Amino acid sequence: MSCMRLIHGQLKLPLIPRTPFAPRNASYSRMLSTRNYHNVVRQASKQQAINTTPYLDSPNTIAKPLLASRNTRGISNMSTSTPKPTIAVISIGQMGLGIASLLLATGYRVITNVSDRSTATQTRAKNANIECLSSDTDLVQQADYILSIVPPRDAIATAQRIETALRSTQNATSSKVVHYLDLNAISPTTARQIEAIFTPLRPTIVFIDGGIIGAPPSLSRTTSPESNSSLEKWTKPGIPISGPDSISDTELISVLNMRFVNEKIGSASGLKCCFAALSKGFTALVLQSFSTASSLGVYAHLQDYLEENNPGAGEKARKSVVGCTTKAYRWVEEMRQIGETFDVEGGWQGRAQVFREIAGVFEGLADVVEREGAGKLGDAEGVVRGLGEGLRKSG
User: CA–CA distance from 192 to each of 152, 154, 155, 239, 365 (Å)?
Assistant: First the structure.
């Protein structure tokens, strides 16, 4: 078995070694029993089948098959001789910064264009060692992958920006292929609209539908009890992706914890919407329940009953209230996108308007945060008290 080789995908049987006891002639073949000989062939055929399994991008990609399992997370790296691609991240908010930091920690070059953003955003990007370019034209010329991570309301405008920059440099970069990954919380309908923006520029640009499920990547450090050495571990969100095109960098797939859903544009973004409907829908219900209890003067009693009847639920609810204050403005459009998903894809039609109403809950909170500042609201009780006061003033 140790002599078995696969050369250019073809089966090569074991060579007959030259030794004083086994000269290169037919006598060596007779030393192998018929059973052992066929075992060699059988095992070689199995190995050849594994090595020729279709990969995510092409048969030339050296990696484990991505589609081997629906739950595939770890993918082996590409050849170390292959240079890592340049990744553009737009924009550098909380999630974008976390994704960029993870990529930088694993050796990728990360670029962005924050020339039109606030001084705080520019400083945040520079402090994270992200290369800040002065224009979208420079960005598309240098990037191999573009990750769009913006508020849902800006998803289409961001795609149009990149399309304009690509069109202006099409002649200069005609041989280059750029992958555009829309990782925003949008409906399948919006994802298909964005795909249509890039369709005239194919094959210069490849559109990948996606979403981000979970909190931004974070690095934790622990000490090994055995060696007393420091250990680093990244906690990552999940990134489902879908569409007819593929990603050849299997290391990038593993680093970003991507999971291929299917070949339809809209499936990955729809999955994100279905998940967010549960997690953020819960937060919207908590905001309404807690703020109403606060107005009635029974907030503390509600917390007591939660703890008695559903231990842990109260703590989770309170954390969700405090955690959403700085994100509420982003979630307004996300709720509308969820409603559109349930309407069009789920067949709920007008009955999905509940999420359009939920958008109003987060819009009300966003107004309070903008007026008061998230830091002044304090704990969950302070947040819902401020929300209730804001509702009474607007009513």
Answer: 14, 15, 12, 18, 30
**DSSP readout, 50-97?**
HHTS--SS-TT--S--GGG-TT--------TTSPPPEEEEE--SHHHH
Q: Which amino acid makes up residue 315?
A: E
62 against 111, higher pLDDT? 111
* Cα 26 from Cα 364, distance rounded (Å): 87
- What number of helices (H) and strands (E) belong to the chain? 15, 12
Task: Specify the pTM.
Answer: 0.76
By mean pLDDT, which of 3-12, 152-161, 201-210, 246-255 is the weakest?
Answer: 3-12
Structure-model confidence comparison of residues 248 and 337, the more confident one: 337
User: Would you give the distance in Å from CA 87 to the centre of its chain?
Assistant: 14
- What digits encode the pLDDT tens for the residues 134-148? 999 999 999 999 999
Residues 142, 123: Cα–Cα separation, whole Å = 22
Establish how many alpha carbons lie within 13 A of residue 131's alpha carbon, considering only the half-sphere containing its beta carbon: 16
Neighbours of 225 (CB within 10 A): 6
| β-bridge pairing 10-12 and 239-242 | unpaired
Tell me the longest C-alpha to C-alpha distance in the chain.
Answer: 100
CA nearest to 133, candidates 149, 154, 116, 147 = 116
